[in-house]
Write a structure and sequence with these properties.
Helices cover 76% and strands 2% of the residues. By secondary structure, the chain is an all-alpha fold. A hairpin with a 2-residue loop joins strand 1 and strand 2. The chain is globular and about 65 Å long.
Length: 357
Amino acid sequence: MNVTPLVWIITIAVTIAFFVYEFFAHVRKPHEPTIGESARWSAFYIALALLFGVGIGVVSGWDFGGEYFAGYLTEKALSIDNLFVFLLVMAGFAVPKAYQQKVLMIGIVIALILRGAFIAVGATLIENFSWIFYLFGALLLFLAWRQAFSDHEDNPVDGRFMRFVRRHLRVTDEYRGDRLTVREGGVLFVTPMMLTIIAIGFVDLIFAVDSIPAIYGLTNEAYIVFTANAFALMGLRQLFFLIGGLLERLVYLAQGLAVILAFIGVKLVFHALHVNELPFVNGGRHVEWAPEIPIWFSLLFIGATIAVATVASLIKTRRDARGLDAQVEEVRGEGVEGEIRYDDEAARATDRGRSTD
């Protein structure tokens, strides 16, 4: 895929322009977006991402187009998991809904900057060291295991990093609008809003560690890696307000992502064996039996995994809700029957008392 410096410059400039527009058009004035507003902009950014993928397929070939779509699906799924942690952070800091847009916007920009740096480093490593695929593959397999079997109850608000930040910063007791710092009595304080953004920035850094190796397992093209990440992050703010309630119902999302990360980890190890140059592995020669998993299979596998995880989550939460409703009705029924039995016994006791008299 031949991407000229001019194409890179135009792509980065357009990406920056979108985020600048987002800030001045939607975020600058604090407000809670409506469901309609969130739905329209989410649909717009998803349609734009799909259209861009079609453009890559038409201009550069559908092998690259397939790599883009597989990368976009993976990054979007990981970004939704990221949203769940954002939700925990903002609940932990009790961020007013009117200011949540600003927090999300700054967090998403930080995420894009961090991922851009990781993309550049990853591209340099891949170009110079073929063995890096072994490292990426092992990392993804570890992250898949952690994603599948961790309890996901850790709140970054109470983590070691944020406790360290609190010890070294003067923090106001309450929010000061959407300001990040205030000066009181000649002393500079940070607000809880600043702490929230620091926490989200730290979360972004952690998520970039699995996000970038994952997409490099699907494509070696840095341009596809960057654009898939950019489009996955665009519209994430609106998606937060659109599916905020749905996030809690995606109970199997973590397991679905674990399957995807494990699949890409295995794919990376196979690729590393296929291009092997390490002298202590097969005498430094390529391992011929190692298969190269085609991108169409990766795309189908990732899409199917996301679909299965989503459907299974909704079925389970609906079944749990029905079970809870049945328990409530049973308790109510027992309460009514108990009242009836009590009234009957009281009536019989009254009758016995009358007969005695």
